[in-house]
Give the backbone structure.
Amino acid sequence: MNPVRCCFALLLLLAMNTAVAKSVEVKGLFAGSALIIVDGEQKLLKRGKTFNGVTLLTADSKKAVLDIDGKQHSLGVSKRISSSYQKAEVAEVRLQPSHGGHYVTPARINNRPVSVMVDTGATTVAMSLPQAKALGVDYRNGTLTPISTANGYTQGYLVNLNSVTVGTVTVHNVDALVSVGDFPQTILLGNSYLSKVKMFRENGVLVLQSQY
């Protein structure tokens, strides 16, 4: 083979390998910055700054908007873009209704197993004081607030949960309300979680999908 052609082919192969080598993952989100990993290298990137060809456009507690090779991508925590810059497969869980028509499912709160019931009428995830204690929720550092229950008014603590997971669909930084009494008997999966996932019904089955 002609040496010039051989050298050109080698350079072309190296360029192709370089183009497809990049892997981007978000490990932490903050206001105006994001902790990202690019090809195994970790960097706390501030808005407008570039690291290994990745520019952070915006960031908040929910997602980071990144510019990669001129294309914008929105990523949540622990979401990854592969070398082809395609979003990771969407996490999804399908819930069958119980005999009463409610959707009750195993879940994990702060990585501890629980049972929850989907409640689109609840503003936040809601749990009783005994449930919060069993989960190790630091409710005493929450904000004391009046709440309305089926039995009248009582008080509760507004707290923040590190994570809530149903199936493979995880949401971080989820607001929750801890009632000082024994209500509810089953933890309610309210809109502080549901508003951060894609939710729809399909032939009677409730489908939850990750948004990022």
Remarks:
- Helices lie at 3-19, 129-135, 191-194.
- Residues 6-21 have pLDDT under 50 and may be disordered.
- The domain at 21-81 is CATH 2.30.30.830 (SH3 type barrels.).
- The two ends are 48 Å apart (CA to CA).
